[in-house]
């Protein structure tokens, strides 16, 4: 599994990580220019200016205190700094699933980022764990959306609760929770629209869906996953801000990491939003969704 992850994020390895490696090779000393160049590479890798600034400032401090004396040690500390960013956002946002059934996951994000595909992949993961899953087609806006989710459901043998296109998404969500409760399902995953007539409408709709779900089942949704497309770079951050203002996002699914050489966006999101990246999408197949493991991810990035 680790090997496949490495292959899949090979683009990032070929991109900014190779640049970093080239920067470190043959260097005997840490110069101010070296730190500047690292800074530049990290920013180019979509890591976000404030995130990079913090990392560089820390490294700088450690260098001046004499705690880091050679480029190799600097590379190691850089790795640790990136890991620390992830661990912090994880620690502050832990979810406790114990005893909650059904566990309700609301999935949000703009159109085309990979919500429906990620839901299918997630459902498949839960099924592998022996859990009973119910999918809810609350994207009633886009004509083919309901059908798309139904197709996935059929392929995996997972029930999909739906109504006709154009139906009230909140009503579909309500139905979905009811069905899941009566079936004694373990997990419910609610798909939502990525686009309505306006963005304000979309946010209002999501808030309504959330309220209605909470009325049907107290405490639900237990998890609100925001899906972001890694290939959109820093744009993903502004999307995240919009969604976080409207709904309490508890975690991020970052898709299409297989399609970018700038894996740094993962760190940018964890740091700037203080929301943990829960899953990463690394392809279009059912098994191409991984729980995000910071340690494994950073090791895979930096491995030589
Ligand atoms: N390469 C790659 N493609 C992905 C990944 N995740 C999703 N996709 C593709 O992205 C496209 C859009 O995915 P959808 O799941 O339909 O996106 P959506 O957010 O539900 O879109 P709307 O329903 O229009 O809002 C599809 O072609 C997916 O196969 C990923 O991790 N890697
Ligand atoms: Mg969709």
Describe the structure in your own words.
With 304 residues, the chain is of the alpha/beta class. The protein has twelve helices and eight strands. It has an eight-stranded mixed β-sheet, with helices on both faces. Helix 7 links the parallel strand 2 and strand 3. The longest helix has 21 residues. The mean pLDDT is 91. The structure holds guanosine-5'-triphosphate and magnesium ion. The site of magnesium ion (MG) has 5 residues, from helix 6.
Give a quick rundown of the structure.
This protein has 304 residues and is α/β, with parallel strands linked by helices. The chain has helices at residues 2-8, 10-24, 32-44, 49-64, 71-91, 115-128, 145-156, 169-183, 199-216, 235-246, 265-273, 294-302, and strands at 103-108, 133-138, 160-161, 187-192, 223-229, 251-255, 277-281, 289-291. Strands 3-2-4-1-5-6-7-8 form an eight-stranded mixed β-sheet, with helices on both faces.
Q: Order of strands side by side in the largest beta sheet? A: 3-2-4-1-5-6-7-8
Which structural class do you get from the secondary structure elements? alpha/beta
How many helices? The count is 12
Number of strands: 8
Main β-sheet description: 8 strands, mixed
For the residues shown, what is the average pLDDT? 91
Through-space gap between termini: 18 Å
Shape: elongated
Q: What oligomeric assembly is this protein in?
A: single chain
What Rg, in angstroms, do the CA atoms define? 21 Å
User: What ions, cofactors and ligands are bound?
Assistant: guanosine-5'-triphosphate, magnesium ion
